[in-house]
Automatic annotation (TrEMBL):
Residues 158-179 are annotated as: Disordered. It comes from the Bacteria. This is Golgi phosphoprotein 3 GPP34. It comes from Actinomadura algeriensis.
């Protein structure tokens, strides 16, 4: 499932996620993970082709920042024991996972606080925050709605409806998610 919130130039995308990385990529054997992924992305809105009544193309371009509210599939449900964020990207590739003690202590409050301070997040990633004044104001007002979506997705993962592996066979390296 995918939720998208669009502001002036920045979008917030939220999706359930099932992730089983190849052992070589992880550096060690690890259980698959499931949970919720949230990304800040650049949004592009194209021109309507032909008429003002025509639909406009909308593209969620490159990611700027990501938070993964994940837990190991073999761990206790609801633990979010693998919650981390990626404060930087090189093009489409995320930087290393960053495990923040405040994120681990209260993942939902941490995400809400970061989204409420879009200027601070953008400054940390080296993007001029003045370019996103409308985005900051709009996002701050919508944080409760974004967090409601995050909570509903996490509940869907915990209930087994979302964030599940594809098929019933042995676990293969895979990512099942919009993001």
């Amino acid at each position: 499932m995918l939720y998208a919130f669009g502001f002036d130039r920045i979008g917030v995308l939220v999706s359930d996620l099932y992730l089983a990385l190849p052992s070589a990529e992880q550096g060690r054997e690890r259980s698959p993970e499931q949970g919720v992924r949230l990304e800040l992305r650049i949004l592009e809105c194209g021109d309507a082709d032909g008429s003002l009544r025509h639909a406009r193309p909308i593209t969620a371009e490159r990611p700027l920042w990501r938070v993964d509210l994940l837990e190991t599939v073999t761990g206790p449900a609801g633990s979010l024991d693998q919650a981390h964020h990626h404060p930087n990207f090189q093009g489409w590739a995320p930087g290393r996972r960053v495990f923040d003690p405040d994120l681990s202590a209260d993942p939902l409050a941490w995400v809400a606080e970061r989204l409420s301070d879009l200027d601070g997040v953008l400054a940390e990633i080296g993007m001029a925050s003045s370019a996103a004044v409308a985005d900051s104001t709009g996002l701050r007002a919508e944080v409760p709605h974004v967090m409601d979506c995050v909570s509903r997705l996490l509940e869907g993962v915990r209930s087994g409806r979302l964030g599940q592996p594809p098929g019933d066979g042995p676990v293969q390296p895979t990512r099942k998610s919009w993001l």
